[in-house]
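Problem: given the chain below (173 residues), write out its structure.
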Amino acid sequence: MKLIQVVCLLALAGCANSASRPDESLRRTTRDGHASFVLPAEWTDAGKGAGKQEWQRKRGEAVVATLEVIFIPLYADYHRRAADLVEMVGKDDPEHEYEVVGAGETDVAGAPGVTVRYKMGHGSTSVTGTNLFVLTREGAVEFKIVYWMGEPAQDVEREGEAILSSVEAVEAQ
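Solution.
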């Protein structure tokens, strides 16, 4: 099952190159002792997913970040328990820490979801889906990735491969 198959995309794209100078638009602040990104307002249009390609082009230094990811399964079993979602992610990426911090949350369109906080670092952890949007919380000290799981699995796979190819192209430059 390849609903979560690319576990390095945003981290590779946003903060894998420790030698590069952080972009000023990726200002960092701290929360709970971890680095977090403050994203420009124009990246937060969840209706268009505007942040995805821009994030791939903005290179920053390697950091350890605490991210909050909201999973929005659109198929029939979207009421799956939060713990099950964390377990599903953990199977693909067992070396990182996951914690459920909220359930019954919604995205901007009102779709049901669950928020999972996890640590990432050294360009090693992220998620992908057929749509991948960036949302800022009040105070803009964290971001969320909305992972849609309602599309056919082959579409998820194709999207993941396309994003990974883009990241690899950036890395090769």
